[in-house]
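Aim 2 progress update. The chain analyzed this quarter is reproduced below.
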Amino acid sequence: MVFSDQTYSVLVVSAAQKFNEAFAAMLPGSEYYPVRFVGNIAAARREMVNKTYDLVIINAPLPDDFGTRFAIDACNQSGTVALLLILIIFLCGIITVLGVLNVRLFQKLNTRRESEQSISFATGAELPAETTALPTESIDATLGEDTPTIDLQKCPQGVENVPTEGALSLQKIYSRNIDSVVSITSTGQGTTATGTGVILTEDGYIVTNCHVVENGISITAQLTDGRTLPAMLVGADSVSDLAVLHIDTTGLTPAQFGDSDSLRVGDTVVAIGDPLGVKFRGTYTDGIISGIGRDMDMDGRTMTLIQTNAALNSGNSGGPLINCYGQVIGINTMKIGAFTDSAGVEGLGFAIPSSTVKEVAEQLISQGYVSGRPTLGLEGESLSSFDQYYYRLPAGLYITDVDRSSDAAAKGIEEGDILLSVNGTNVTTMDALNGAVYNLDVGDTVEVVIYRSGKQYRVSLTVTEDKG
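Predicted C-alpha cells:
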C-alpha cells in the first residue's frame, strides 16, 4: 500500500494489549498523525459516527464481534481503507507496512479548557468528604398516561399446553412460525446492523435484541409478505439484551410463546433468522437444548441463558428459538464461535429464556423501561496504553456522556473527566463500570474517584434508576 504525502487518520480496533503497545511504540517521536485506539467493535462504531478515518486496522478476534462486518462497513465509507488482521502473528509484518507512516495521536485530551469551572470534590484525606454540587439543569423524564400495554400468551405449564397433535414435524414448525418472524435493519450514522425480530401482537409489537437496534437512528422491519415498514423503538433494556419495536400495521401473526422453565437438556429446538443479513432471511436450523441456566458474562453483567447447538450466526440475533411444539421458548442473542476461541469452538449458541422475554417485554411496552435497573448515568470509553503514556494519564474510563438527570451530573462530573474507581474497584472499561453497579440497588450510595486536570477527586454518588 502506497501513501501519498498527506496526513492520514488511523483507527486501531484491537483488544490485544501487546499489539497496541507494539503499535504505539513504533510511532515516530517528532510528528504524529491522528491515531485512535479502541478495544471493541461497539466503540469503533461509535468512533466512526463522528469521524471518517482514512485507515481502519482491525485486529481480530474481538470481544464483541469478529470484525468482518465492521471492516466491510468501514470500506463502504468514502476514502476509508480497512485492514482485517486474522492472526496476531502478522504483527511484525503490519508494523513494517505501517512503519513508513508519520503518525500523530488525536488531540482531544490536549484541548481540555483550562478555564473550566472547578468541581467541588474531596481530594484524599486533606479535603472534606462532602461535595458541593455545581448548578446544573435536571431533566425529569416522564412517560405519557396512554402508554400501550401487551398481554403476552401465558407460558405453557407442562403437558397441559402441548398441542393435541403432539410434536410437530420440522416442516410444520417452520410453516407455523415463519410469518411471525421479521427482518430488522437498524441504520445509524455510517453504520448498519441487521438482525431478526419476533412478532408479539397482531397490532405491530415486535421483540428483538437490544444490541441490534441500540445505535439505530432509522429502524425498519421487513415482513414475510415483502412489506418493509418503519419501526419505532418502544423501549430497550441492555441488561437483558431485549428491545421492543412497533410498526404501524395490523393483522400480523403473533408467535406463540412456550414455557422455558419446562425445558430439558436434549429437547429438540429450531431457530429461524437472517444469518449474515437479509440475503439469507428466513434461514432455518435445528439442534437440541445443550444446557439450561448457563450464566454468561456480557458487558459486565451476568445473563442466565439457554444453550443450544442449533447453528446461530450474526444476523440471527433477536430471532426465535422454537421447541418441537412450534412454541417460542427463547430469543437468540449470542454465540461462541471459532474466532473467539483458540480451540475453534462451534455449536455454542445462547438464547434468552421466554420467561425473561415475557417479563421484560411487558414492562418495555407499558412504561418504556424495566423497573429497578441501577445506573450512575455515565458512559465512557477505555484509555489506550498510548493515551496514558503520551498524556501522562492514569488508567481509567474516559467519560464521553453524562445523563443530565443523574446524580453524577448534579455533583459536577463532566464529559472529559476520567473515572478511576467505584467503591474501591478500578474501572477502565464500560464492562467494568456495568459490573460495578450491576448488583446495586436504586438509592444506594457509592464512592467514585475522578481524575481531572492532574488531580484526583472523591465524590459520593446516589444510584438512580435507568429509564433508558
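The longest strand covers residues 283-298. The radius of gyration is 24 Å. These observations will guide the mutagenesis experiments scheduled for the next reporting period.
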